[in-house]
Amino acid sequence: MTDTIEAAATQSLLPTYARYPMALVKGEGSWLWDDKGNKYLDFMSGIAVTNLGHAPKRIKEALVKQLDELWHVSNLFQIPNQAEAAKLLTDNSCGDAVFFCNSGAEANEAAIKLARRYQQLVAKNGRYEIITFEQSFHGRTLATLTATGQAKVKEGFAPLPEGFKTIPYNDIEALKAAISGVTAAVMLELVQAEGGVHPANADYIRQVAELCEREGILLVVDEIQTGIGRTGKLFAYEHYGIQPDIFTLAKGLGSGFPVGAMVAKEKLREGFTAGSHGSTFGGTPIATAVVKATLETIVGDELPARAAEQSVYLMEQLRNKLASASFVKEVRGLGLIVGIECEGPVANVLTEAQNRGLLVIAAGPNVIRLLPNLLVTSEEIDLAVSILAELLEAAK
Ligand SMILES: *Cc1c(COP(=O)(O)O)cnc(C)c1O
What we know:
Aspartate Aminotransferase, domain 2; binds pyridoxal-5'-phosphate; Aminotrans_3_PPA_site; transferase; Aspartate Aminotransferase, domain 1; PyrdxlP-dep_Trfase; seven-stranded mixed sheet; alpha/beta; about 35% helix; Acetylornithine aminotransferase; 2 domains
């Protein structure tokens, strides 16, 4: 990368990211190119965003068509793409009503607001507390970082909003002990992705859902990373035989275009009325043209099933080829969120993988996270696994 770009970034951007000294300038399918012409196999998909690969043709066509027609009008008007995108979401999920926003944190913020407002104004029980879990990740706004079960995202931001409680994950007794007369909602990820790629225990999730139902507590599932086909189902909750009251989406929803959504069950509709929540940019004609094209492609081409198939192959190859690497502790995941837990820090392995032309990310210090796009081929999996096997065999 030209030194001038790096110097300008250092000088003019707030230092919120530890950036690699690399500028990616072009992408196609599973492949990326940097400004020096080096080619990379992308097994991180912009952190589970580009589920259809880079620059997917059908999505680009929908976007360009909409750019020629209309960009923005505000939610004071009917927006046909928004209504149609919402219908695609509700037709293909357990949800009944959608609110569009622009990011994951905003989707979770909307979920927290809707859960509280429903309990306080519809159920009229005064409940406000949101129970969340250690190692979870829910976003960076004040409410969502408070909901996040990781101390590092909270440091220096006091005072934090009240009404959140964080408890251990996969521990039903801890949840029973935490519930009280003020519990409004339980909010969780079905695979804790940022927290180290930990899929929830199926029995535990069924018990959580039953307990919530019995106690009138809303179950909010954060599907921001797991949704849109990533885990081998359109939404991860389908693996668990549950129906969340609210689930949230962002990352894969726009194939790389920024958009978020909160999807709620029918009874929650009355939780919001005109004016109780809103977003200037939420669900613009452009954003929802992209959502429509993304959902039509993922549902129409049965890509969740394809992701499930490729997941079986990826996990099998990893388990075979990494069997003799003593640095590797465990390979786990759900669909195409895969974690390789190692005996020590993996930062060096990530950098060496980049040097070998493979992009992967970490999930915590000791876990390598693989997030290939849903169209990844078996040949691309073979290539990624062979690079990782060689690096991990040598790692200590
Ligand atoms: C990425 C992520 C978020 C936050 O999304 P932003 O778009 O960065 O605000 C929230 N929850 C989960 C599970 C995520 O993976």
